[in-house]
């Protein structure tokens, strides 16, 4: 590692024939100051020193050249030596300075780009909640000024809107951001440690009655006339007992028409486990008609408006919500039944499994609930049976039950199970 008298001219012309070369400044005042030059020509200033915290050699980046000049690099090195003389690690001082300058909005953006988007499937939802509920209220605040009361400033307006579940999730999201920042060293401590998240709403217990199933199934073709994709997704949520995100994101490659199966990869399931869904005759007909509509070159069964990807489950949820908006003469919306969601359809299906005498372990296998099918060490390790035969029988039985329910009021469109659109 060469030691040279660094000058502006030398730094500007410095090169490396190796992968990288470190040039150390020979001035006693800036001992450890290093210009690292890569073979590609990139130049970076750093300081090599012994940390007073653990006595180990450490490297601290001071900036890149030419953005950071030789004079500025020397100034930073001298300042760092001053902190070392006082027994402080200059990296800690630099981190504290960054934290004092960084805003909450900057911390959120850093969290999203460096952690959430590369690692979390729910990154989109987390980003939406943070930018809707946190950034507008305290986004401009410096991290150094962040206080426990600021969590309440974020959560209270959500609670005021009577969105308790969302308030709970916003609390968890923001706390996760801060914990991540502490782990990185952007913050010295988490001001939200010890705070309790708002209680979410009481778990929904809504299941649709036979009359309500009939009203939804037979009403879809007129109430959601402009979106056959949404019609079919809703019906598939009910007939397969799967989540709306899994149904809406159904890829063409996941469907085996000959075997009548739909294989959801672990990357798309809530528990990250591959899940095989046997397709009843009703489900198969719905999917075949959807495939015919999207064409042979489509990658997904239900396409977004720009045909560049799958239809978002949020679009389906908003479509259902609009249809249920009260109006004069229709206080319960166009379906004329109390409010329901796609997850209520899943709950309805699984509840009817019990009514039909289907064993809980089979219902759990259909729902991909590990808590039922792999509840103990014995079941997890030794029981590898996947209940494919029983799942198929259960789903076919449930499809036949739906057919009997909706047949009481035949639709003008061919949307009854077994031949549905």
Textual characterization of the structure:
This protein has 421 residues and is of the alpha+beta class. It has 3 domains: 85 residues, Integrase, DNA-binding domain (Double Stranded RNA Binding Domain), CATH 3.30.160; 81 residues, Orthogonal Bundle (DNA polymerase, domain 1), CATH 1.10.150; 197 residues, hpI Integrase, Chain A. The chain is 49% helix and 10% strand. It has 18 helices and 8 strands. The strands form 2 sheets. A 5-stranded mixed beta sheet has the order 1-2-3-4-5, with helices on one face. The chain has a 3-stranded antiparallel beta sheet with strand order 6-7-8. A hairpin with a 4-residue loop joins strand 3 and strand 4. Helix 10 packs antiparallel against helix 12 and helix 10 runs parallel beside helix 14. The longest helix is centred in the middle third of the chain and has 21 residues. It is elongated and about 95 Å long.
Instruction: State the major sheet.
Output: 5 strands, mixed
Share of residues in helices: 40-55%
Topology order in helix (H) and strand (E) letters? EHEEEEHHHHHHHHHHEEEHHHHHHH
The CATH topology name of the largest domain reads hpI Integrase, Chain A
Shape: elongated
Domains, number: 3
Individual helix count: 18
CATH architecture heading of the largest domain? Orthogonal Bundle
β-strand percent reads 5-15%
Distance between the termini: 74 Å
Strand order of the largest sheet: 1-2-3-4-5
Number of strands: 8
Structural class: alpha+beta
User: CATH homologous superfamily name of the largest domain?
Assistant: Intergrase catalytic core
Radius of gyration, rounded? 30 Å
Name the poorly predicted regions: 373-383, 410-416
Task: Give the class-level CATH name of the largest domain.
Answer: Mainly Alpha
Mean pLDDT: 88
């Amino acid at each position: 590692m060469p030691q040279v008298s660094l000058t502006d001219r030398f730094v500007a012309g410095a090169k490396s024939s190796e992968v990288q070369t470190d040039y150390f400044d020979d001035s006693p005042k800036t001992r450890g100051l290093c210009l690292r030059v890569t073979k590609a020509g990139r130049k970076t200033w750093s300081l090599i020193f012994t940390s007073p915290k653990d006595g180990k050699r450490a490297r601290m980046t001071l900036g890149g050249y030419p953005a950071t000049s030789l004079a500025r690099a020397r100034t930073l090195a001298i300042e760092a030596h001053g902190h070392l003389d006082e027994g402080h690690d200059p990296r800690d001082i630099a981190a504290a300075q960054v934290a004092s300058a960084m805003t909450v909005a900057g911390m959120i953006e850093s969290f999203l780009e460096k952690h959430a988007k590369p690692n979390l499937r729910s990154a989109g939802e987390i980003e939406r909640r943070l930018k809707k509920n946190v950034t507008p209220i305290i986004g401009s605040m410096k991290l150094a000024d962040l206080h426990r009361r600021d969590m309440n400033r974020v959560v209270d307006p959500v609670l005021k809107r009577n969105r308790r579940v969302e308030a709970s999730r916003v609390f968890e999201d923001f706390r996760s951001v801060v914990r991540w920042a502490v782990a990185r060293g952007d913050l010295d401590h988490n001001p939200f440690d010890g705070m309790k998240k708002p209680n979410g709403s009481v778990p929904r217990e809504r299941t649709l009655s036979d009359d309500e199933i009939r009203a939804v199934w037979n009403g879809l073709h007129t109430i959601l006339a402009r979106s056959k994709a949404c019609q079919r997704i809703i019906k598939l949520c009910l007939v397969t007992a799967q989540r709306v995100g899994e149904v809406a994101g159904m890829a063409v490659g996941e469907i085996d028409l000959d075997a009548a199966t739909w294989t959801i990869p672990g990357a798309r399931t809530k528990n990250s486990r591959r899940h095989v869904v046997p397709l009843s005759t009703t489900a198969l007909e719905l999917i075949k008609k959807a495939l015919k509509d999207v064409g042979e070159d489509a990658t997904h069964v239900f396409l977004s408006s720009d045909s560049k990807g799958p239809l978002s489950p949020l679009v389906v949820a908003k479509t259902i919500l609009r249809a249920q908006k009260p109006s004069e003469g229709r206080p319960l919306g166009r379906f004329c039944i109390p409010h329901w969601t796609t997850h209520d359809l899943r709950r309805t299906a699984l509840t009817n499994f019990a009514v039909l005498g289907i064993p809980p372990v089979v219902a759990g296998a259909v729902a991909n609930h590990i808590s039922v099918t792999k509840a103990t060490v014995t079941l997890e390790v030794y029981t590898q049976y996947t209940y494919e035969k029983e799942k198929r029988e259960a789903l076919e039985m449930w499809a036949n039950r739906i057919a009997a329910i909706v047949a009481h009021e035949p639709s003008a469109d061919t949307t009854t199970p077994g031949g549905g659109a």
